[in-house]
């Protein structure tokens, strides 16, 4: 390890340093073990304690999902989880555009571990499923390992997202039963992948139509709709599959207050884009409410918001940045008049 650390510092351009610090060794050990550096430092406790709060700052209106995920992770770190199972296996259900995939992304980002995503629409056929663990002898690609097993061996600490799991072929469910039970999967070459430090998240839109049957507008939810949504999930997934899950998390429709927080998040991203061009943006509360209302659809969730900001704000600013009043930077005040966005430009 000391030789590796010295070589690392020399390649990094720190050859003049005569001392190797504990932090340097931690960095090399983390690289060798393929775990994040923060997982071998004393700050891990503080990071773990603040994980729910940090996720709540970027994921809005889905506190139940955050609570279930973080509890499973803390249980694993405390040594109270089953030793031969993944950190957690969860099924996220609910309407599209409410943050199911984003929760998985932000969990990986905040934990400092790898994020592996597989779109299950690519594995609808029986032969396609074999790509995950490798093709059998006599088939094309036998000399290559499986996409899933190789990914887990390279990144044993990761968040694994299986997006839209209901689209996958039934053979994939049989593979997942073993993974959720014993946290191991063997590829076509006999090499085992260890899932004990993996958070498995599967998303599904099953039950979304039933949940929204009686929903109109922001946050409108009926108990009967939620019940029908759960029944649809039960009809889609077999009992043996559901029995191995650590939790089925039903995502909520987005409320007005939640949408306004998402507007602020998306506008903050726009501000960062414009900051590089010396452009500052501010907007009124009425603009926030306007974008929250126009950017939400019960069927599509918050997805229309990004298109709304692109069409009504970004496209409006494009010509000004390239040819108009913002070529040398400036300030923009976005307002609302007669249900239309207005722009004031200042130097």
From TrEMBL:
GO molecular function, a single term: ATP binding
| AAA+ ATPase domain sequence ranges | 86-255
Entry GO terms, CC: cytoplasm
Question: What processes in GO biological process is this protein linked to?
Answer: cellular response to heat
Question: What does the UniProt keyword field contain?
Answer: ATP-binding, Chaperone, Nucleotide-binding
> Where would I find the Clp ATPase C-terminal domain in this sequence?
254-343
Domain of life the protein comes from: Bacteria
User: Is the keyword Cell division assigned to this protein?
Assistant: no
Report what the protein is called. AAA family ATPase
Gene source species: Desulfotignum balticum
């Amino acid at each position: 390890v000391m030789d590796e650390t010295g070589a690392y510092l020399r390649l990094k351009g720190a050859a003049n340093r005569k001392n190797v610090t504990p932090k340097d060794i931690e960095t090399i050990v983390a690289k060798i073990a393929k775990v994040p550096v923060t997982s071998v430092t004393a700050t891990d406790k503080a990071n773990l304690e603040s994980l729910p709060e940090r996720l709540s700052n970027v994921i809005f209106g889905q506190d139940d999902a955050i609570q279930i995920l973080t509890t499973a992770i803390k249980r694993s770190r405390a040594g109270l989880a089953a030793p031969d199972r993944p950190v957690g296996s969860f099924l996220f259900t609910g309407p599209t555009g409410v943050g199911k995939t984003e929760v998985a992304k932000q969990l990986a980002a905040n934990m400092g571990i790898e994020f592996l995503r597989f779109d299950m629409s690519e594995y609808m056929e029986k032969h396609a499923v074999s790509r995950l663990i490798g093709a059998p002898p006599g088939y094309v690609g036998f000399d290559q390992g499986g996409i899933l097993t190789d990914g887990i061996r390279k990144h044993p600490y990761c968040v694994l997202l299986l997006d839209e799991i209901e689209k996958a072929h039934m053979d994939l469910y049989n593979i997942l039963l073993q993974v959720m039970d014993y946290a191991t999967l063997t590829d076509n070459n006999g090499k085992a992948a260890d899932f004990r430090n993996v958070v498995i998240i599967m998303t599904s839109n099953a039950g979304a139509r039933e949940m929204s049957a009686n929903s109109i507008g922001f946050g409108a939810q009926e108990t009967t709709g939620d019940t029908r949504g759960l029944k649809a999930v039960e009809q889609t997934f077999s009992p043996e599959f559901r029995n191995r899950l650590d939790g089925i998390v039903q995502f909520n429709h987005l409320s007005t207050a939640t949408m306004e927080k998402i507007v602020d998040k998306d506008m903050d991203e726009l501000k960062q884009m414009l900051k590089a061009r010396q452009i500052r943006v501010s907007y009124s509360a009425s603009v926030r409410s306007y974008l929250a209302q126009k950017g939400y659809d019960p069927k599509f969730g918050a997805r229309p918001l990004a298109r709304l900001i692109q069409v009504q704000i970004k496209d409006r600013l494009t010509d000004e940045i390239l040819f108009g009043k913002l070529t040398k930077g400036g300030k923009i005040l976005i307002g609302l008049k007669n249900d239309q966005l207005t722009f004031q430009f200042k130097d």
